[in-house]
């Protein structure tokens, strides 16, 4: 069984569009995250979220917003997509709020044309 | 800049040899460190972790060493196999608050030569 899953795996869209990436974890974890991996493979935290708190990396544009319909899901919404948003986006989850092992999803490759 | 970095972007070793991947971190407040392996087209996969109250931890064929004095982390892989070819990332976090999520280094691409 897949622990952390994301859909879609590939997403190609045009500049200015609004898109969402879905993430689900079946590990019963309380905390979920979104990371962005650029073309140089550098991974950077975007959001950390549990049912009490949302931590936003200050470098993330406000066009990005996480939405959690329930504890097992943390979706990523992106408005007015720009070329620079092209990257691989990874969802992750952990049992602990901080300092715990994180389990990553397979990633969503977003290409903005 | 990033608080965690790696010394070598690419490391090539012969199959069966031992590999050592190094990582330097700059945030002295970090108290939890993880090594991840990322294969092409996949998400990072947990290998081993270590907390700051330890200086060595062993897993199956892997050992992580932590030197807090010089803020250095290393991953040793014994008897490397073709399946070990991947990009390896070290990551750090401070469990007491402040930096949230993991801060990743740039990654080292490990290539196993037959």
What does this structure look like?
The complex is a heterodimer of chains A (113) and B (114). By secondary structure, chain A is an all-beta fold. Chain A is 0% helix and 49% strand. Chain A has strands spanning 4-7, 10-13, 19-25, 31-37, 43-49, 54-56, 64-67, 75-78, 87-94, 103-104, 108-112. Chain B has no helices and eleven strands. In chain B, strands 2, 4, 5, 9, 10 and 11 form a six-stranded mixed sheet that branches. Chain B is globular and about 45 Å long. Chains A and B meet through strand 5 and strand 10 of A and strand 4, strand 5, strand 9 and strand 10 of B.
Summarize the entry for a quick read.
The complex is a heterodimer of chains A (113) and B (114). Chain A has 113 residues and is mainly β. Chain A has strands spanning 4-7, 10-13, 19-25, 31-37, 43-49, 54-56, 64-67, 75-78, 87-94, 103-104, 108-112.
């Amino acid at each position: 069984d897949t622990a952390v899953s994301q859909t879609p795996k590939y997403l190609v869209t045009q500049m200015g569009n609004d898109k969402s990436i879905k993430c689900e974890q079946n590990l019963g974890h309380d905390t979920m995250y979104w990371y962005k991996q650029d073309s140089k493979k550098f991974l950077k935290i975007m959001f950390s979220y549990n049912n009490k708190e949302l931590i936003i990396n200050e470098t993330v544009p406000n066009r990005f917003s996480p939405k959690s319909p329930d504890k097992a899901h943390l979706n990523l919404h992106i408005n007015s997509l720009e070329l620079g948003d092209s990257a691989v986006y990874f969802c992750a989850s952990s049992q602990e709020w901080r300092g715990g092992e994180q389990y990553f999803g397979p990633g969503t490759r977003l290409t903005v044309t | 800049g990033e608080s965690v970095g790696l010394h070598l972007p690419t490391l090539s070793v012969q199959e069966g040899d031992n590999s050592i991947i190094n990582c330097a971190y700059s945030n002295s407040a970090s108290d939890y460190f993880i090594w991840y392996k990322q294969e092409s087209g996949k998400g990072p996969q947990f290998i081993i972790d270590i907390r700051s109250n330890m200086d060595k931890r062993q897993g199956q064929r892997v050992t992580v060493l932590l030197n807090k004095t010089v803020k250095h982390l290393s991953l040793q892989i014994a008897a490397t196999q073709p399946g070990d070819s991947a990009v390896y990332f070290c990551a750090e976090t401070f469990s007491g608050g402040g930096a949230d999520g993991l801060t990743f280094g740039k990654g080292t691409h490990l290539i196993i030569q037959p």
